[in-house]
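Appendix C reproduces, verbatim, an entry submitted by the partner laboratory led by Prof. M.T., so that reviewers can inspect both the input and the predicted structure.
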Amino acid sequence: MVNSWWEIQILSDPALEDLIFWRLEMFGCRGMSSQIKGSSQLVRAYLPESQAQLLDLAALSLWLRQDALTVGLPIPATQWHLIDEEDWSSSWKQYWEPQEIGDRILIYPAWLPVPEPSERLLLRLDPGAAFGTGTHPTTQLCLEALEMRLGYGNSEGIIADIGCGSGILSIGAVLLGATNVYAVDIDPLAVRAARSNRELNQISPERLIVERGSVDRVMKLTGGKPVDGICCNILAEIILDLIPGISAIASPKCWAIISGVLLDQAKPIADTLEQHNWVVATLWKRQDWCCFNIRRQ
């Protein structure tokens, strides 16, 4: 089959979704989606046939198994097959529908016709290979927390989005009124997706700055000026390493929204935050995930 693509399907516990998306990104997949199937989650991902042999796919299945065992969750079922090139780019999109989040935001797939005007803020999105579609509990929690922070007359300020993925949180912050947002990610595919979504939502590059990098890059972009708010929705292990850097760019009255954390990972995150002079104001929970709303002491 000429110019074919692998379609990889992974049926798993919903709590594994973050790890699965991260693993698929590391594997080089382009275009991913997730769909609830009963009490399980079905993730689909796509990869050019030329980039993976059967042994590579078998290794991916083994890595997914090890990831699940590491966090004490059931082993996912992984399968794959080839599809024609003209099918791959649209296959995953058919499962993603518009979604209302919180009281103010509507996540709307970029390939659908623009809807009729409504009271909700329209956040158009094409995530590509980057994480962040609004379907995952951690993304929803972060957007709802941003609405709480920015949605009621408290929107002025400079915000950093560490590990921005598709740019969904950064764009949400701008739509809710943030003055400036600095979005960074170490993955060049995420940077490309975030910039594309910035343009899709007609946001100026001066208001939403998207660059490759991490906390140190934010510090350079702001000229060393501290930020007023921080979003970070990535894996717990990475968050632990980032907390000192995040603390270094925070203003004395800074708030932060931290997620990507499973409930059983919450205590070490909370302990480390407190060691770096953060107060946990609230801890929101959804399914097996949690979201920290924190502020400086």
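The chain has a mean pLDDT of 89. Additional entries are available on request from the coordinating office.
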